[in-house]
TrEMBL record:
Higher taxonomy: Eukaryota, Viridiplantae, Streptophyta, Embryophyta, Tracheophyta
Pfam families noted in UniProt: DUF674
InterPro entries reported in the protein's UniProt record: DUF674
Name this protein carries in UniProt: DUF674 family protein
Organism: Carex littledalei
Amino acid sequence: MATKSLILNLTIDNSKNKVLFAESDKDFVDVLLSFLTTPLGTLVSLSNKNSLLCLDNLYKSVEDLGDEYFKTTPCREMLLRPNHAAEIDCLDLPLNVHGDRPLIYYTCSQNCAHELLSLYANALCACGSKMMRKVKVVRGSSKKEPGEGVFLKCATRFLITDNFTVIPASTQAAFNLLGCAGTSLSSVVEKQVSVGLSEIIAILRQSLIAEDTFTNVFLEGENANELEKKNSPFALVSHPKPCSDPTDNFVGIKLIVDKHKNKVLYAECNQDFIDILFSFLTYPSGFVIKSLNGKSHLTCLDNLFATVLSKPMADCFKTEETKEYLVNPRLYSHFRSTKSLVKSDEAVPARYYMCRTPDCVSTEVSLVPNVQCKCARINNKKSITNKRMKITDPRTSRASGLSDQGYVSVATYIVTDDLVVTPFSVSTLTRMIANASEGVVEIPVNIGEKEVLALLEAALGSQAVFTDSFLIKEETTTNAICGDDSDCVIV
Ligand SMILES: [Zn+2]
Ligand SMILES: [Zn+2]
């Protein structure tokens, strides 16, 4: 993985101190497109838990929850550092927001008969031991042809708007963008900037909170403070109230509602619902945008997603498969769950091979079979990477030897309206209901697929996730007393 700098030519409206568009080659666009393969949990950590409101709270809840609340040791790590199906391809990117390090996976001891590989430390091997031996993923030569990118193939240059619509460069495209902005040519200036890893992470962070991404990262002045504004409460105005098909699977929760304010104080639920919420962190952003029909409230990423499907870009992708990586990202089997209630296709994992000669000292796992192992020189044998390693589900528990596909232990939990998750405790409960002057009412809700998608959408666009997803707002607030079915409607 060669980290290098990319050059971006910015076209700026000097009178407004705003970037009109950036011009780049396919390498930079490839890096932008990789944002769609990035799981939400990784977006939260790259933005220092300071951009995605409720998801930040969800992420911090995973960090704060005691070890005893996770089914297995790797579960917390899976949520905080989720891997994604395109991570091997992303190693070819000139700048990789997923990390500038080799991939490290884990095996049991070299002499264990089970040929298992885990993407997380301390997963349980079939022999009963924990898999703690670090192995480094090495690749043969890259699959890329010279001149090809990771997702794109053409040598065209691209114009990228400040909110991430990408268009192959042409005179007409440039004039359209200048025309749309109502800019006179006399106030247009150009600026060349160099983009390294820190700049690309700054671009990613900005894209999550504002639509003036390049302006905020590269220009100084008024616009540079734009990022503070987005943190204002966002109300879902015309949110369709969900109504799941009664044949769906359901997970039951209880909403504790402040009668006077018609606001959910918290939800009381069991582990199944927490698994659903925590799973959000493992979803690649492209998967989220697809599940929400292109409208995730992450406007820049929505634009990027629409770009992949746009007509002008149709001939720019290497294959239909690379395009699928972006607009239909699949989840690894160990991130899927029948309980998550959101439909997802399973990614075909890469094949991994190791030399399993007893006492082999190599700590490399190869993506190509039958490569001569380092140990061959020492023990004079024909040691080759000829054993295909099976990927294990790190959620497999010692008690059953099976994965029941969940992350958290059996318990009762409390989730606030802005998605702070804590184990149930009376002191939390009394603190939460202390200010509900006219008391509270408990409302049971069945969560099916439509409700989960409504919650996912609200988690990205609201700070009152349950209230906005499940309570119908009263037009007049004077008599908005919630307490009987006629006043407070749950759908
Ligand atoms: Zn073992
Ligand atoms: Zn070997």
